[in-house]
Amino acid sequence: MKDKTILITGANDGIGRATAEQLAGRGAHLVLACRDDTKGQRVAKEIMETTGNHNVDTLPLDLADFASVKAASEEFLAEHPKLDVLINNAGVYTDRLELTTDGYELQFGVNHLGHFLLTLNLLPAIQCCRHCTRVINVASAIHKKGVLDFTNLRGEKKSYNGTEAYAQSKLANVLFTMELDRRYGQDMTTNCLHPGLVGTRLANKKAGALTSAVWSMYKPFATRPEQGAATSVYLATNPEVRDVSGRYFDERQCLQKPSAIARNEQLARRLWEYSEQAVADFRL
Ligand SMILES: NC(=O)c1ccc[n+]([C@@H]2O[C@H](COP(=O)([O-])OP(=O)(O)OC[C@H]3O[C@@H](n4cnc5c(N)ncnc54)[C@H](OP(=O)(O)O)[C@@H]3O)[C@@H](O)[C@H]2O)c1
């Protein structure tokens, strides 16, 4: 992976950090795109120390703010002519209704819209050839419980169910993967994955005390972030998947069928068009 440039979102913690460590160990040039740049720099330093790979940069990126996504895209494109692997890994879970800076429900805004904008803005560096560029979206098996409610993506309805909103955002990750493959399949491969139940702090950060406590109870039964990174690393590096695109993989690197809704082409098109309109003012 020595000549490969890899951008990972949410690389300061959990699965993203473990993915970054493993890819740095294989000699890739890494760009850690993190909401808190101080945390990003600290982790970059630690990864450089543990792997001996000094080719680890950071990029400030707040996916809850389209202006930040645009600025990060501009900064990346100014410094890097090509991007070999984009890993859209960052994610948030919350059980209280919060909105992004641009007024979208937080989980849909961060987990889907921010990554949608980032990916489209980075196309000039991504579009190369199908065999040399890979886009990887970290989705979740919970997408199977997801339903897209276009009337509630700005938190219009008063009642809020965090798990439903999370499942909706992860369904959007899978639909985006399939539609990106249909639209740009000549230029790159695009796949998504479920990393397994992984003992990170995902539901300890913004969720309420009860959800956070339940999440902590599950942790002893969950896999470690190093194992949770396995499918992202596989999709980023393995020659076996050089020509595989528009697919959904599980934590054992096996192909799985996403839910029927996630395979609905009409819905994927509608989500793409909605997302395009949402981010229009911030496209490069
Ligand atoms: N853990 C699981 O069991 C599991 C299962 C299925 C899917 N996933 C998916 O795996 C991915 C990684 O999650 P994880 O479990 O590793 O959780 P995590 O340890 O909390 O990592 C999430 C990362 O996303 C970052 N992030 C959150 N909001 C952001 C924003 N507005 N802008 C930029 N970055 C932001 C976090 O930054 P901060 O540290 O600054 O908050 C952190 O670096 C997510 O997409 C998640 O949905 C996880």
Overall strand count: 8
Q: What are the segments in which pLDDT stays under 50 over at least 5 consecutive residues?
A: none
Give the name of the CATH architecture.
3-Layer(aba) Sandwich
Please tell me how large the radius of gyration is: 17 Å
Keywords: Oxidoreductase
Organism: Neolewinella antarctica
Family: Belongs to the short-chain dehydrogenases/reductases (SDR) family.
Protein name: NAD(P)-dependent dehydrogenase (Short-subunit alcohol dehydrogenase family)
Blueprint (SSEs and pairs):
Blueprint: E1 5-9, H1 14-25, E2 29-34, H2 37-51, E3 56-60, H3 66-79, E4 85-88, H4 106-121, H5 123-126, E5 134-138, H6 162-184, E6 189-193, H7 202-205, H8 209-218, H9 225-228, H10 230-237, E7 247-249, E8 255-256, H11 265-279
Parallel strand pairs: 1-2, 1-4, 2-3, 4-5, 5-6, 6-7
Antiparallel strand pairs: 7-8
Helix pairs in contact: 1-2, 3-4, 4-6, 6-11
The chain binds NADP nicotinamide-adenine-dinucleotide phosphate.
Q: Could you characterize what this model shows?
A:
With 284 residues, this protein is α/β, with parallel strands linked by helices. The chain has a single domain (5-282), classed as Rossmann fold (3-Layer(aba) Sandwich). 44% of the residues lie in helices and 12% in strands. It has helices at 14-25, 37-51, 66-79, 106-121, 123-126, 162-184, 202-205, 209-218, 225-228, 230-237, 265-279, and strands at residues 5-9, 29-34, 56-60, 85-88, 134-138, 189-193, 247-249, 255-256. It has an eight-stranded mixed sheet, with helices on both faces. Helix 6 crosses helix 11 (265-279). NADP nicotinamide-adenine-dinucleotide phosphate binds next to helix 1 and helix 7.
